[in-house]
Amino acid sequence: MDQVADFEQMWRDLTPIGRSASSGGYFRQPWHAAELELRAWFREAATARGLEVEEDPFGNLVAWWGPAADFAATGKILTGSHLDSVLDGGAYDGPLGVASSFAALDLMRERGVRPTRRLGVAAFVEEEGSRFGRACLGSRLAVGATTWADAAELTDREGVRLGDVIEGPADGAGSTMLDGVATYVELHVEQGRGLIDLDAPVGVHDAIWPHGRYRYDIAGRADHAGTTRMEDRVDPMLTYAMTALAANKQARVQGQRATFGRIDVRPNGTNAVPSHVTGWLDARAESDAALAALVGEIERQATERAERDGTTVTVTAESVSGEVAFDVALRDELAGRLGGVPILPTQAGHDAGILQDAGIPTAMLFVRNPSGVSHSPYESAEMADCLAGVTALADSLTGLVTAQVTA
């Protein structure tokens, strides 16, 4: 099999799915048409390779190489990523890792690798949190970090409950899909400029910055945009605007990250002072203490401004993930096997972080993004770098699936 042609064909098959004709970005939200088409593609790719597909009650998929009876129930190796996207996102965030996993498996077979440990290719659902607002929801459910009772009540922007979209486990129990998994390796497109600056096609991540999503509910009083004097208004938009500016300034001063990227305004009329503004803050920092300091200062300034505006502000932490350090021995083993590639942290959250936190030793490979842009139609990767990533992943997995289990 021509590995280059096979990977390029996979990418041609994936490229049009969920792509916007106007922006060129991708809309692959979980359990909508484009993401369901990608799930069908995953099953077809697995079937074409003779892999056994397993789906857990939450929609997570794994394609296993070889029947379970041929391998020990423990010591399994898992690779993969996710298929969903942010709203108007890029082509590579998620699907590159899944397609590369299938291509790496193909390359291993071509090389004559005979695994002694079972290998699976995973596609975790709702990694971005773009529909139900909980990042890495599928992997959180798979490891038990989030309960089905909690997740079932999550709603999307149209008010649809997750529990009305999928049935979930009939008995309320969790997933058994990851039972026996000893190691997880995820390949991902880089979401920054680290490899550009180092002129390297492939690298290894060593940690994920702590990060969180916080909902700011700001209440005021609806009024007429024309007849109400400026000094008589109780305008929550003013409180929100100052808070967004404060977040930007504090992140810059402290060397961290803070973004208000989503807002809901009510009644959302052009000629009315709003009665309520909800904004969602995404905050990330180099340590748990730095994140707490950043979020605390933004909330303090929002509260002070609300007092001046006569509004009220309520802050709710919708999800917070602490710092994740990937398995050091596994990281060094992979970096060494790949010839001493760069080792860098990432400010982006990943399913790999959820599995590492759950006690599964995890490593991440990443492929250079020449634009340095992600979560955007401008996200990109060169085919030569993608193929270098496939080779690096195949080399990494070969060492893992042929290693002796010492339990």
UniProtKB/TrEMBL annotation:
Arranged from A to Z, the UniProt key words for this protein are: Hydrolase, Metal-binding, Zinc
- Cofactor stoichiometry and binding? Binds 2 Zn(2+) ions per subunit.
Q: Which E.C. number(s) belong to this protein?
A: 3.5.1.87
Q: Where does allantoate bind?
A: R213, N271, R284
> What Gene Ontology terms describe what this protein does at the molecular function level?
hydrolase activity, acting on carbon-nitrogen (but not peptide) bonds, in linear amidines; metal ion binding; N-carbamoyl-L-amino-acid hydrolase activity
Residues annotated to bind Zn(2+) 1:
H82, D93, H188
Question: Which coenzyme or cofactor does it need?
Answer: Zn(2+)
Please give the InterPro entries that the UniProt record associates with this protein.
Amidase_Cbmase (IPR010158), Bact_exopeptidase_dim_dom (IPR036264), Peptidase_M20 (IPR002933)
Residues annotated as binding Zn(2+) 2 = D93, E128, H375
Q: Which one Pfam family would you cite for this protein?
A: Peptidase_M20
The record's similarity note reads: Belongs to the peptidase M20 family.
Protein name, entry field: N-carbamoyl-L-amino-acid hydrolase
This chain's source organism reads Nocardioides kongjuensis
